[in-house]
Specification:
The chain is of the alpha+beta class and 464 residues long. It contains twelve helices and 19 strands. Helix 3 packs across helix 6, helix 3 crosses helix 12 and helix 5 packs across helix 7. It binds one RNA strand of 75 nucleotides through strand 2, strand 3, helix 2, strand 14 and strand 18.
RNA sequence: UCCGCGGUAGCUCAAUGGUAGAGCGAGUGGCUGUUAACCACUAUGUUGCAGGUUCGAGUCCUGCCCGCGGAGCCA
């Protein structure tokens, strides 16, 4: 039985001398009239290809090997040997090349040339076969795994919060409605939709956040985190927004804002560190072709602590800035993209955690400070991407929380179960949300968020 | 959703209102332990869609669709 190994393993010098089988997709073929051809084969296990040396003596050399083009799938058996040529340590001297499937070069959309990322998006089912998307997806995978490890090592419980929710007022943006009602002949009572006939006997939606449910678990099991898809029906068309994206939301009982900031910083630094050590080849590619400062920036972040400052201090810096902003700055306004970029890219030149925001611009669940003007909110801002984490210490005082709900036009009765967490055995607790795609964007330097998720969902786009 | 720019060959892009081209890719032939291989030749097309102006529209006008950049919303 011949041993199958990955392309990644076949490219290592330690594989020299072994007789193995590899399977993958042809990237390119180069013929030599001296009587042999070179194939470049990739199987997704790593960034690089393995070079296959195919002699014309093979039975199917003329009939099949010479017809191999980019995109064809093959199985190759042969001996790994040190490569005399430049550019690769090893190569596979083929004894047998079996073709699983050809890819008609007249119609196969992926050519042996550079493609624009916009074009690749139109063939999202084939773009995993490209260098850039392949590398981005390996980095995304490494980040996901690293996030899980970070929380698991610290005793967090991975909790699967519901995708479908009936609370329509979480205040985190427009929601997608979920219904089994007949949309052509909708049942109505007094002109209004009769939701008693809907699947859940009430309006229901796709979740915009698992935070409230995660709080319930933290207030009983101590430390919990969610990691799953979330949905926003906002008609936003930017390089940083998706209608469906993945979010990590840790929540900790017996934790204040300080502990929350410490966790957020430790999380980012560990994840960046593990990507740098685990995805060297992919990161080298991004560093070379997208942004030559990427690796150096990440190294710097791993090496030194984040900057931390209060919202009030940030406003002071912005007002004293030697420049004019499109949006004027004064205490009480929410920070605009230009303000965040100025702080991260020009003032501190690394990630910065802002905290203690005005209560008027933050949601009801954030804990009020003693000054009653600010709440214990925190945002982690990074250069280029902007806000990558948003979180807070949660308001654990029942009366204060109810007051804040009313202040923001919410009905406390709709949140009866959330308020029960304060009514019975309340504890100080804190948590935050981290957008996975934003992290992948920041780590890889990929400008558009649609390139860091397998099949992007944006307004008017759900083809794949 | 708002502002700006764009949509021409498989891809990336040219074309003062007057016969639609180039590079890459593809095909054919040649050459070489090659490696974004190289050299020569060949074929690319409802110029996003629908109207309008004009002797004549890729080009000008109107509407719509899609994409990109910026903004808002946010993760």
């Amino acid at each position: 039985m011949i041993e199958k190994i990955s392309v990644a393993d076949a490219r290592r010098e330690s594989a020299v001398g072994r007789r193995v089988m590899i399977e993958g997709w042809v990237r390119t073929r180069r013929d030599s009239k001296a009587g042999f051809s070179f194939l470049e084969v990739n199987d997704g296990s790593c960034f690089g290809n393995v070079q296959i040396l195919v002699e014309q003596g093979l039975a199917n050399y003329e009939t099949e090997v010479l017809r191999l083009t980019a995109g064809a799938s093959v199985r190759v058996v042969g001996n790994v040997q040190a490569s005399p040529g430049k550019g690769q340590a090893t190569e596979l001297a083929a004894e047998e090349v079996m073709v699983y499937g050809f890819a008609d070069p007249e119609h196969y959309p992926l050519q042996k040339k550079r493609h624009s990322l916009e074009f690749l998006r139109q063939i999202a089912h084939l773009r995993p076969r490209t260098n850039t998307i392949g590398a981005a997806m390996r980095v995304r995978n490494a980040i996901s795994f690293s996030l899980h490890r970070f929380f698991q090592e610290r005793g967090f419980l991975y909790v699967h919060t519901p995708i479908i929710t009936a609370s329509d007022c979480e205040g985190a943006g427009e929601m997608f409605q979920v219904t089994t009602l007949n949309l052509v002949d909708t049942p109505r009572i007094d002109g209004k939709v009769d939701y008693s006939q809907d699947f859940f006997d009430r309006p229901s939606y796709l979740t915009v956040s698992g935070q409230l449910e995660a709080e319930a678990f933290a207030c009983g099991l101590g430390k919990a985190y969610t990691f799953g898809p979330t949905f926003r029906a906002e008609n936003s068309n930017t390089a940083r927004h998706l209608a469906e994206f993945w979010m990590v939301e840790p929540e900790m009982a017996f934790c204040d804002l300080q502990g929350n900031m410490d966790l957020a910083e430790a999380l980012l630094r560990q994840v960046f560190s593990e990507v740098l050590s685990g995805c060297g080849e992919d990161m080298a590619f991004f560093n070379q072709f997208l942004d030559p400062t990427t690796i150096e920036t990440l190294d710097g972040i791993v090496a030194e602590p984040f900057e931390r400052m209060t919202y009030t201090e940030a406003i002071r810096l912005l007002r004293n800035a030697d420049r004019t902003f499109e949006f004027p700055v004064e205490w009480g306004v929410d920070l605009q993209s230009e303000h965040e970029r100025y702080l991260t890219e020009e003032v501190v030149r690394k990630p910065v955690i802002l905290c203690d925001y005005p209560r008027t611009i933050k949601p009801f669940y954030m804990r009020m400070n003693d000054d009653e003007a600010t709440v214990r909110a925190m945002d982690v801002l990074v250069p280029k991407v902007g806000e990558i984490i948003g979180g807070s210490q949660r308001e654990e005082r029942l009366e204060v929380l109810e007051g804040r709900m009313k202040e923001q036009g919410l009905n406390p009765e709709d949140y009866w179960w959330y308020l029960d967490l304060r009514r019975y055995g309340t504890v100080p607790h804190a948590g935050f949300g981290l957008g996975l795609e934003r992290v992948v964007q920041f780590v890889t330097g990929i400008a558009n968020i649609r390139e860091v998720i397998p099949f992007p969902r944006t307004p008017g786009n759900a083809e794949f």
